[in-house]
## 1
Amino acid sequence: MFTRCPNCRQQQSLTVDQLRLSGAIVSCRQCSIKFDALELLSETATEDTGNIPQTVVLPWEQQPRNPYWLLGTVIGIVLLLAQIVYFEGNAAIAQNVRLRPRLESICQHLGCRLPDYKNPDELILKGALMPSNDHYAFMVAINNQAAFAQAYPNIKLTLLGYNGSPFTHRIFYPQEYAAEIMQTSPLINAGATLTVQLDIAATKNHMGGYTFDTLN
């Protein structure tokens, strides 16, 4: 008698004793897959393979489905994202405007906190430097045009001579100009405007102009 492997279609001969001893479950000599020889058993060798299935998965070869597999996969992905954000700190992934809302939602469920959003290009500064008695008063308004609350920026003020060349500068840090405000509002909310006054001492050089900008 003859049977044919459903996987590689290799035909092989069998005896009645072989079928009885193996319970009709045989192993293909070519691809080693086990299959039920009775399903494709014939008394003569044949080249007809038109109705032979490509693969036959036996009951004991089927992988059991764990009902918690999908849930475990989702939890694993969420934890992986949380670890990336936690260990990367101020990495670009936490500053990405498309990913950040999803990351914030994940952190709300996991109890974590994203690094403060920082993009100085979305902070618009408007100000004026005016003499006041024996010093200068630097009035500046900071508008956060980002979609997220931002940390208070460092502000660099540069004084220029009459020829336009800088002769001195000073960097104002948030602890200097917004210490009291930061106690109640640690970040500048999206769309909010903060107005502060910064005092600087008068210089010996004659000032012909000034520039100011935010720093990371």
## 2
Amino acid sequence: MTSSKLFNVEPVDATFGAVVTGLKLTHMGEAEFTALYDTWLEYALLIFPGQHLSNDEQIALAKRFGDLEFELTELSNVKEDGSIRTDDSDDMVKILKGNMGWHCDSTYMPVQAKGAVFTAHVVPSEGGQTGWADSRAAYQELDDATRDRIADLSAYHSLYYSQQKFGDFKEKDDSEYFGYGLFGQDPPLRPLVKIHPETNQPSIAVGRHAYGIPGLDEDESERLLAGLVEFTCQAPRVYYHDWTVGDAVIWDNRCLMHRSGEWDMREPRVMFHSRIAGDAKSEFAAHD
């Protein structure tokens, strides 16, 4: 563990990520936050055990990292009446299952997200971890031939493409995900190599939303994209967090992929997600 006058930082057993203790997220002065932000850029994933943030406190924390793409959404298999969602045709179940694939948030939107704050409110008895993968370290470990091959390649990103694997989404007003990344927009075209706007570190930019590399046939594109995800998501570039109620995390969406682990979906799992908006100068991608 390393420590400062402000808080303690214990790196996890991976190429990225750290557990931060000795800091109350709701009572940070500017000096503490500046040090925390720098630590976040270094480690990309920060884990804060036992913070027990309220929804308003979570939103306030996320806003310190930048403007928000959206303030708060509940990722949960529990309905408002307390019953458990078990129907595979339920749009929320489709989203929860889709989130079990490796991805970066909002790559399917014109402006990719900067990061996210995530909190645990109800956790299953086993499973349901969240995993992250270090796309920076993966790029550094690529062989020269693969680096050269992907240097000038791009892929389209679409939530509609990735979610179709879990059943059709109907364009309807009562869909819980109506209008957000699913309908009425062209898929952005994003380079396979991303340069982080604050650290200048290159990373591999792939994930479940990516498809259709221009210049490659469909099979070759799929093989390349799947191979890059598989390569990235290998130890020591992967970390899975076992949630305890009250935990909070913040991750850098510009250099990490993430996924939800599987769990017995007859058990409740309730998480809250605040998404930090990306800078339009660095995170914008247009449809080609």
